[in-house]
UniProtKB/TrEMBL annotation:
<keyword id="KW-0812">Transmembrane</keyword>
<keyword id="KW-1133">Transmembrane helix</keyword>
<feature type="region of interest" description="Disordered">
    <location>
        <begin position="171"/>
        <end position="194"/>
    </location>
</feature>
<dbReference type="GO" id="GO:0005789">
    <property type="term" value="C:endoplasmic reticulum membrane"/>
</dbReference>
<keyword id="KW-0472">Membrane</keyword>
<dbReference type="GO" id="GO:0051082">
    <property type="term" value="F:unfolded protein binding"/>
</dbReference>
<dbReference type="Pfam" id="PF08229">
    <property type="entry name" value="SHR3_chaperone"/>
</dbReference>
<feature type="transmembrane region" description="Helical">
    <location>
        <begin position="84"/>
        <end position="103"/>
    </location>
</feature>
<dbReference type="GO" id="GO:0006888">
    <property type="term" value="P:endoplasmic reticulum to Golgi vesicle-mediated transport"/>
</dbReference>
<protein>
    <recommendedName>
        <fullName>Shr3 amino acid permease chaperone</fullName>
    </recommendedName>
</protein>
<dbReference type="InterPro" id="IPR013248">
    <property type="entry name" value="Psh3/Shr3"/>
</dbReference>
<feature type="transmembrane region" description="Helical">
    <location>
        <begin position="57"/>
        <end position="77"/>
    </location>
</feature>
Amino acid sequence: MGVRAAFVVVTTSFLIGVLATHFVADSLTLWQSPATDARLWAAAQYYTLLAKAPSEMAFVLAGITTFGATVILWSLFDGRAGNLMFDGGSLFLYLSAISVYAYNVLPILTRNFINSPLSYGSIKEAPFPDILKKPTLELASSHLVCSVAMTGVLLLQAGRYWADGEDAGWRDIDSIPTEKSSAKGKSKSKEKEN
């Protein structure tokens, strides 16, 4: 179980890192108000670079994503109740992030930014086109949804680790005082005083 959990944590952390790189553009549109034309142009330039990235990068990302989902499925069907709860929730969040990326991010990138004439460093002084404003904001919000879902996967895996540790008895049962042992200890100390 430990190796599978490690693979899930590593692949999920890698995907969170990939999504975190988009914060360069997402922060300009989501976290800084108002979303000025200059900020939208900068975000659009980043998304254009992302859309024009080599296809090998997309294949590596798809492979790592598929590997992570496969490991969660493998762990889910282990038959333990903890796996059903934590890995079931992890699988739901993982597949939610994949579906948001597949059905929101990828179509927006290919439809709006792959053939864009924007190049790095050519910030336009013209007003940002309204036709690109909504897709730019949707990309940023979709990246945020994916990041939150992947963070949820990490939290569920941490919860699973903690629950497994509690089940295995992290604490020494003999060192936990009970009512009987504390009463015996008090009576022995009174006898010693007398």
